[in-house]
Amino acid sequence: PVFLIQTSEMLQKICMRNLVRKYCRELTAERKVQLQQKVVTSAVFSGKKEGYLESLSQPFLETRLKVNDLNPKVLQLISGENIKYVTPVIKYDRNGFKARERLLVLTQSSAYVVEMAKIKQKIEYSTLKGISTSNLRDGIVVIHVPEDKQQKGDVILQCEHIFETVTKLCILANKQSLVKVVKGSLRFRVGSGKEGTMVFTVGPEPQVFKDKTGQLTVV
User: Most-buried pick from 15, 111, 117, 152 (CB within 10 A)?
Assistant: First the structure.
């Protein structure tokens, strides 16, 4: 009878609402933050970057390094700012593309590229022009900065946990709409009005090198 079909549909909706209500009430604060971050990751990378599906089952860590792991001089230089996330990265020089071990420190208001006891570059989120990464499985991310005397140029980083790092950065900076997943190549600012090109390609093994044309090639 029609009234039984209608009753069944109503009961299914009520049951589903109760299940959702129960699930939400049992969520811990930590789990809720995880889900909120994963929603942002989905909006930025789903269907755009290879490796995204494999990342779904990997929970994001609050930070990859603790505040106590930072050099005391660095902590003193950024005192007063709330450190939210720290992760080891490889930074590539804008000229010559030499690889250098660095730390990426994200606070409530700025991103810092740190070398041991030195702050090599500070990027205030309010001045951030964009965040770029490729559609392939590499961990390259380019942080685009404004062209002014305070900035040396865009920052080229390689991150082991690319989805986590970019998600943390765009949430803290509130710049989710500025994240671009590019195919083939991208342009970055070297400084003094100059630009460089980064080329993304597929090969038998991952590598990053300066090719014969002077471009940075990411395999």
Answer: 111
